[in-house]
Design a protein that fits this description.
The complex is a heterotrimer of chains A (204), B (349) and C (539). Chain A is mainly alpha-helical and 204 residues long. Chain A has seven helices and four strands; from the N terminus they run ααααβαβββαα. In chain A, the strands form two sheets. A two-stranded antiparallel ribbon of chain A has the order 1-4. Chain A has a two-stranded antiparallel ribbon with strand order 2-3. In chain A, a hairpin with a 7-residue loop joins strand 2 and strand 3. Chain A is elongated, with a radius of gyration of 27 Å. Chain B is mainly alpha-helical. Classes of the chains: A mainly alpha (204), B mainly alpha (349), C alpha/beta (539).
C-alpha cells in the first residue's frame, strides 16, 4: 500500500513538474518570440556589401540567408577575406576555415571601376549591372563611376560591349595610410609566423 | 641626404628584465644568509643545485621549443624561480625532490604555457605544490636549526645526505631526532592536541613570536622586500594588502578565540609569509596588474593563507593561496580596470 | 602675479634626458632666403583647401595661394615669399608614411616682395571690433604651432560663441631637445603677451594661465617681466615632467580639471593655445603678416651648430641644416619633433611645415639615455610588470592593450579606451622588455579607423543596394500595375459594349450599322428576286 502511495506521489510530482515547465516554456516561447531573423541581419552586417555575387548568390543578403540556414560555408566571400571569415566564425561560434580557393582572387587589393571615357558609347548596360547605383550617365551619353560609392565588385565589366571599364587599385594617400603592424622582434626571434598564431588564437 | 626611418619614441629607459631579476636576487641575499646561519650548508646546496637544474631544464625546454637560448637564459628568470623554489624546500632534502619540483616549475608551469611572460601560474609555487602533495614527508622534515642542539652537518656530510640519503650517516630514529616540524606545523599539531596557543608559545623554544629561526628569517625577507619596494622593482599594493589582510584576519579570530588561534604576529613572521608577500605574490607575470586588482589579489592571498593554515591540511598555505589567486587574475583584471583619464566626467555628461 | 599657485599632478609621466642646452646657447637666427620652397597644400587637420594659383603664376609674398571652403575645417595658405610657381606636383612631406602629397613648388626671385598683399596692420587691437579680429585670424592661415596644426580660427571662434573661463597658454615644451618656444619667450616676450591680450580681448576669460616647465628660468623671467602690468595673466612655473605639455595634462596641472574621454577642453570652459600660436596671432593682427614663417629648432649631435632659426614655411630641411653649420658625421636619423613623439623623415629635401617645431638630426646612440642598452637589448616578452601602467598619463593599461592588439582583438582594445592614448611614448620609454608599445597602439588605432571606414562604406553600399532592389521592385510593380490597368480598361470597354449590345436586344433599331447591313441584305435580296423574275419573264 505504501508502495502505491510512494509511486503515485512520484508520478504526481514528475507530472506536476513537467506541466509546470511546459507552461513556463510555452509562455516563454510566446512572450519572448523573436520577430524576423536576427541572425541573418547579424551575418549580413558582417559581410562587406560589395554585392559582387562571387559567392554564387545574388548579393550579400541572400548569402547571409544561406549561411543562416546552414546551406553554405562561411568561406565564400573573397572581398571580405580572412577578416570576414574570422568575424563570422566568431558570431556563429564555429571553426573558421580558409577562404574557398576557387574563389580567391590573385590579390585582395581594394579596387574601383574606372570608365575610359573616350571609349564609352553610352549604352547604359553597365548602369543596369551596377548593384549599388554607382554609375551615372544616360543613353548615348558618356557614363562615369562615382568612386566613393563603387564597391569594386566588377559586375559592370562583362556587360560593357566596348570593354571600356577597367579596375584600378585604390591609391594610398597620407590620409588613408595605415600604420603597419610592428615587426615583432620576439616573434621573429622565436621563429613563429604571426599569421599562424593569430589563427590559433582566433580558434581558441 | 637619405635617412633611415623608424617609429617614435626613439629613446628608452635603462631597465630590462635581466636587471629586474638581478635586483630580486640581490634582495634575497639577507634571507639566504640568515637561513644559512640557522640551517647550514643544506640551504646553499639547495640553491646551487636548484639553479643548475633549473637552467638545464630551461635550456632543454628552449631547445625543444626551438627558441633562441641565449636571450632567454640570460634574463635570470629561471634563476629567480630556482632560488624561490629552493628556499621553500627543507635543507638537506634529497636531490630528486628538487629535480621533480623544478621539472614541474620550469617545464610544465612555465614552458608548456609559452615560456617567460605567458605562464598563468607562479612556476616556483607549482613546483612546491606538486611536491607537498606528492611527498609530504620529505617536504616537512626540516633539520633543527643549529641553536637547538648546536650541531649542523658539515659541507661534505650535507652533500652526502643530499645525494645519497641520510641513511649513509644515520638510522631512521637518529634522523627523526635531527629533524623537526616547522613552528607553523608544530603549533597546528599542538593546537589539535588541545593545547592553548599561549601555553605552546611558552613551553616550546619559540623565541619571541614565531620560532627563533623563523622570525629572523622572516625579518630578513622583510628587509629584502623593503629594498625592492625602495628600488621600485615591486609595488607596495600586493605585499601591504597581503600582510594587512592576513594580520586582520588573524586578529579577528584571535580576538574571538585567543586560545586556539595563533596571534597575528605569529602568522606574519612564520612560514613563508614574508617571502610570499614580497617575492612570490609579486611575481608580475602571474599577478594582477591593475591597482585595485592588486589590492584585491594581495588581500585575498592573505585571507586564504589564514584559512588554509587554520582549517586546511597543510602546514603552510602561501603556495596554494597564490595559485588560487593566480587562477582568478584574468577576471580580477577585467573587473578592476582603472578609471581612464577623463572617464568620470564622461559618465556625468 | 607671482602669487603661490596650486598645481595638480597628472598620473604617470617620465623624466627623459632633456638635451635642451645644446640649442639654447645661440640666439634665434633668421634664415637667408632659400632658392625654392616646397609648400604642402595640406598642413593642418581638416579638409584639403582649394588652390588659387596654377603653374607658372607669379605670386607676391603673403599672397593667398589656397583657400578653404566656408563651413569646412581647415586653413588658408599664403606664399611665404615672392616668386614663380614652378610646379604643383607630388612631393615628399613630413608624414610617418613617407608617402608623397601635393605640394606647390615656388622658385623665389629673391625680392621678398609683398606687392599689395600685406594685410592691414591693426595696431590698436583693443579698440578693434571682434568680428574683424576673428576674420583676420581666419584669413591669416593660423594653425596651432605646437605640433597638432589644428586651425586656430575654429578653436577661437567656437570659444567666442560659447564663452570661456580660463585661457591656458601652453609653453611647457616638455619634449626633449625642442627649444623653439623657450627661445621665443626669451626674445619676444612682449609680442607673445600682446598675442595673449588679443585672445583675452576676444574671449574675456576670468584668468589666463601660462604654463611653463621650471627648467626654463630665463623664459619664465622674461614672460613674467612682460606680463607684469596685466592682472589676468599669470605665469605658472610647473614641475618638469614629460608629458606636461600635452593639452589635457597641462589643463589638469593648472586647473585640476580633466577633459572627458572623447571631449574637448572647451567643454570645461577652457581654451588652450600654444605660446608660438599667440605670437603668430600678434603678427597676423598687429603687423598684418599671415602665417608664413615660424621658429624651428635644429638640434642634435648630427648638426654642427644646433640653434633656433626663424624660417619660411616650405623651406627644405637641407637649407635649415646648412644654416646650422651642416651635418656632422653622426647624422643617422632625421626626426621632425622630439625623440618621444617625433616622426622620422627619409629625406632632407622634405620641407618644413606649419607644425614643424624641431628637426632633430642625431646618432641613434645619442638618442638613447646615457647608460641605455635600449638598442642592444632584444625585445623580450611582456612580463606584465605594470611599469607602463604607472607611467601612462592617460591612466590606461598599456600591457592589456598590447596583449589584445597582438591578438588583433580590436573590439577589446577599443573597450580598454585606446582612443584616450595620446601616443606620448611613456610606456615605451619605461618598458623593461623594450616592446614598441606605441607602434602597436598606432597600428591598432589605424586598423580600428580603417575598419570603421569599411563598415561605413559597407553600410552605404547596403543602403544603396537595398534602395536599388526597392527601386527595381517598385518599377516592376508600377509596370505590372500599368499593364493591369490597361487590361482592365480594355476589358471594361468590351464589357461596356457587350452590355450595350445586350440592352439593345435583337431590334437594333438604333444601330445604324446593323440597319445598313440589313438594308444592304434586303437590297441584295430584292435584286436577286428581281433578276429571277426577269429571267422567268425572259423565257
Amino acid at each position: 500500500m505504501t508502495n502505491i502511495i510512494e509511486i503515485s506521489t512520484a508520478v504526481f510530482v514528475i507530472v506536476g513538474l513537467a506541466a509546470f515547465f511546459g507552461l513556463v516554456l510555452g509562455y516563454a516561447s510566446v512572450r519572448f518570440k523573436v520577430k524576423g531573423d536576427p541572425i541573418t541581419d547579424k551575418i549580413d552586417a558582417l559581410l562587406p556589401q560589395t554585392q559582387c555575387g562571387q559567392c554564387s548568390f545574388a548579393g550579400c543578403r541572400p548569402y547571409a540567408e544561406a549561411i543562416a540556414k546552414g546551406e553554405i560555408g562561411i568561406n565564400q566571400c573573397p572581398p571580405g577575406g580572412e577578416a570576414t571569415i574570422l568575424a563570422l566564425a566568431d558570431l556563429l561560434d564555429i571553426e573558421p576555415e580558409p577562404l574557398n580557393e576557387e574563389l580567391a582572387k590573385d590579390a585582395n587589393i581594394p579596387t574601383v571601376a574606372v570608365i575610359i571615357e573616350e571609349d564609352c558609347i553610352g549604352c547604359t548596360l553597365c548602369i543596369q549591372a551596377c548593384p549599388v547605383d554607382a554609375i551615372v550617365g544616360s543613353a548615348k551619353h558618356m557614363h562615369t563611376v562615382i568612386e566613393s560609392e563603387c564597391t569594386g565588385c566588377e559586375l559592370c565589366l562583362p556587360p560593357c560591349p566596348v570593354d571600356c571599364i577597367i579596375m584600378q587599385p585604390i591609391k594610398e594617400t597620407p590620409a588613408t595610410w595605415k600604420y603597419p603592424e610592428p615587426s615583432d622582434a620576439v616573434r621573429a626571434l622565436e621563429g613563429i609566423k604571426v599569421v599562424v598564431e593569430t589563427k590559433e588564437r582566433a580558434k581558441s | 641626404m637619405e635617412f633611415e626611418t623608424d617609429s617614435s619614441p626613439f629613446t628608452g629607459s635603462t631597465s630590462n628584465i635581466a636587471s629586474i631579476m638581478r635586483q630580486v636576487l640581490y634582495a634575497l641575499i639577507p634571507g639566504i644568509a640568515v637561513m644559512f646561519f640557522f640551517y647550514g650548508w643544506g640551504v646553499l646546496i639547495n640553491i646551487i643545485l636548484a639553479i643548475v637544474i633549473a637552467l638545464s631544464f630551461e635550456v632543454i625546454s628552449l631547445w625543444l621549443r626551438k627558441r633562441p637560448i641565449k636571450p632567454f637564459l640570460s634574463d635570470y628568470s629561471a634563476v629567480v624561480t630556482a632560488c624561490l623554489f629552493a628556499l621553500t624546500i627543507p635543507p638537506l632534502a634529497p636531490w630528486w625532490i628538487l629535480m621533480v619540483g623544478l621539472f614541474f616549475a620550469i617545464v610544465i608551469a612555465k614552458h608548456l604555457y609559452g615560456g617567460l611572460g605567458y605562464n598563468p601560474f607562479n612556476p616556483a609555487m607549482i613546483g612546491f605544490a606538486v611536491l607537498i602533495v606528492s611527498f609530504p614527508l620529505q617536504m616537512t622534515q626540516w633539520i633543527q636549526p643549529h641553536f637547538m642542539d648546536g650541531y649542523l652537518p658539515s659541507l661534505l656530510e650535507s652533500l652526502h645526505i643530499v645525494f645519497n640519503g641520510f641513511e649513509v650517516f644515520y638510522n631512521l630514529d637518529q634522523w627523526d631526532a635531527m629533524t623537526m616540524a616547522t613552528p607553523l606545523d608544530d603549533v597546528k599539531i599542538e593546537l589539535k592536541a588541545g593545547h592553548y596557543f599561549s601555553e605552546i608559545m611558552q613551553t616550546r623554544p619559540y623565541g619571541l613570536v614565531s620560532g627563533k629561526a623563523w622570525e629572523w628569517i622572516s625579518l630578513s625577507y622583510l628587509i629584502g622586500g623593503l629594498w625592492l619596494l625602495y628600488k621600485g622593482i615591486i609595488n607596495w599594493r600586493i605585499p601591504v594588502s597581503l600582510l594587512f589582510a592576513l594580520a586582520m584576519t588573524a586578529t579577528i579570530f584571535g580576538w574571538i578565540e585567543p586560545d586556539t588561534h595563533p596571534s597575528s604576529l605569529f602568522h606574519l613572521f612564520s612560514g613563508a609569509t614574508m617571502l610570499g608577500a614580497f617575492f612570490i605574490a609579486t611575481d608580475p607575470v602571474s599577478a594582477s596588474t591593475t591597482p585595485r586588482g592588486q589590492l584585491f589579489y594581495g588581500a585575498s592571498i592573505g585571507f586564504f593563507i589564514y584559512v588554509i593554515r587554520t582549517w586546511g591540511n597543510y602546514p603552510d598555505a602561501v603556495a596554494f593561496s597564490v595559485l588560487i589567486m593566480n587562477m582568478s587574475v584574468p577576471m580580477i583584471d577585467y573587473f578592476t580596470q582603472p578609471r581612464v583619464f577623463g572617464a568620470k566626467s564622461e559618465k556625468k555628461s | 602675479m607671482s602669487k603661490e599657485q596650486k598645481y595638480w599632478k597628472f598620473h604617470g609621466g617620465v623624466h627623459p634626458e632633456f638635451h635642451k642646452k645644446e640649442s639654447t646657447t645661440r640666439p634665434i637666427a633668421t634664415l637667408k632666403l632659400p632658392k625654392r620652397l616646397i609648400i604642402p597644400i595640406q598642413q593642418h587637420i581638416g579638409a584639403i583647401p582649394e588652390l588659387l594659383v596654377k603653374k607658372g603664376d607669379y605670386v607676391f609674398k603673403g599672397q593667398m595661394i589656397a583657400q578653404m571652403h566656408k563651413d569646412q575645417l581647415g586653413s588658408t595658405l599664403h606664399a611665404p615669399s615672392s616668386g614663380t610657381i614652378a610646379s604643383i606636383e607630388k612631393h615628399s612631406i613630413p608624414h610617418p608614411s613617407t608617402l608623397e602629397d601635393l605640394c606647390i613648388e615656388l622658385i623665389l626671385d629673391g625680392q621678398d616682395d609683398w606687392g599689395d598683399c600685406q594685410l592691414e596692420a591693426i595696431k590698436d587691437f583693443e579698440q578693434c571690433d571682434n568680428t574683424k579680429l576673428l576674420e583676420r585670424i581666419e584669413n591669416a592661415g593660423l594653425v596651432g604651432l605646437g605640433g597638432a596644426a589644428f586651425p586656430s580660427f575654429v578653436k577661437v571662434n567656437s570659444s567666442v560663441k560659447q564663452g570661456i573661463e580660463t585661457l591656458v597658454i601652453n609653453a611647457a615644451e616638455c619634449e626633449p631637445y625642442i627649444t623653439c618656444d623657450d627661445l621665443l619667450m626669451r626674445e619676444r616676450a612682449d609680442e607673445i603677451i600682446d598675442g595673449i591680450r588679443i585672445l583675452i580681448k576676444l574671449l574675456n576669460p576670468k584668468q589666463c594661465l601660462i604654463g611653463i616647465e621650471d627648467n626654463k628660468p630665463e623664459a619664465i623671467a622674461a614672460i613674467q617681466q612682460a606680463s607684469k602690468s596685466f592682472d589676468k595673466i599669470q605665469v605658472c612655473a610647473i614641475p618638469t615632467l614629460y608629458p606636461s605639455g600635452g593639452e589635457k595634462q597641462l589643463i589638469k596641472i593648472l586647473t585640476g580639471k580633466e577633459v572627458a574621454v572623447g571631449g574637448i577642453a572647451l567643454d570645461l570652459g577652457i581654451l588652450c593655445h600654444n605660446v608660438a600660436t599667440c605670437c603668430a596671432m600678434y603678427k597676423a593682427i598687429v603687423k598684418g603678416e599671415p602665417l608664413i614663417s615660424r621658429i624651428v629648432t635644429i638640434t642634435g649631435d648630427g648638426v654642427k651648430q644646433p640653434k633656433n632659426i626663424e624660417a619660411l614655411i616650405g623651406t627644405p630641411v637641407s637649407d635649415l641644416v646648412a644654416q646650422a653649420g651642416g651635418y656632422t658625421s653622426k647624422a643617422q636619423r632625421l626626426i621632425m619633433g622630439g625623440p618621444m613623439m617625433g616622426i622620422t623623415l627619409s629625406n632632407d629635401n622634405t620641407p618644413m611645415v606649419k607644425a614643424s617645431n624641431c628637426f632633430l638630426v642625431a646618432s641613434t646612440a645619442s638618442l638613447q639615455q646615457a647608460h641605455s642598452i635600449h638598442a642592444s637589448q632584444a625585445q623580450m616578452p611582456c612580463i606584465r610588470c605594470g611599469k607602463c601602467m604607472q607611467a601612462c598619463p592617460a591612466k590606461l593599461l598599456p600591457q592589456q592593450l598590447y596583449w589584445h592588439t597582438q591578438a588583433k582583438d580590436f573590439e577589446r582594445v577599443a573597450e580598454h579606451k585606446l582612443n584616450s592614448c595620446i601616443e606620448c611614448g611613456c610606456c615605451d620609454f619605461v618598458c623593461p622588455s623594450h616592446i614598441p608599445l606605441v607602434s602597436y597602439f598606432r597600428f591598432a588605432k589605424s586598423e580600428i579607423r580603417a575598419q570603421e571606414k569599411l563598415l561605413e562604406k559597407s553600410n552605404l553600399s547596403r543602403k544603396r543596394h537595398e534602395f536599388l532592389e526597392f527601386r527595381k521592385a517598385r518599377e516592376k510593380q508600377e509596370r505590372d500595375e500599368k499593364r493591369r490597368k490597361h487590361k482592365e480598361a480594355l476589358q471594361k470597354k468590351k464589357a461596356a459594349m457587350a452590355a450595350k449590345k445586350a440592352a439593345n436586344g435583337g431590334t437594333s433599331a438604333n444601330d445604324p450599322k446593323a440597319d445598313a447591313i440589313k438594308a444592304a441584305l434586303a437590297r441584295v435580296k430584292a435584286k436577286k428576286i428581281a433578276r429571277e423574275a426577269q429571267v422567268k419573264s425572259g423565257h
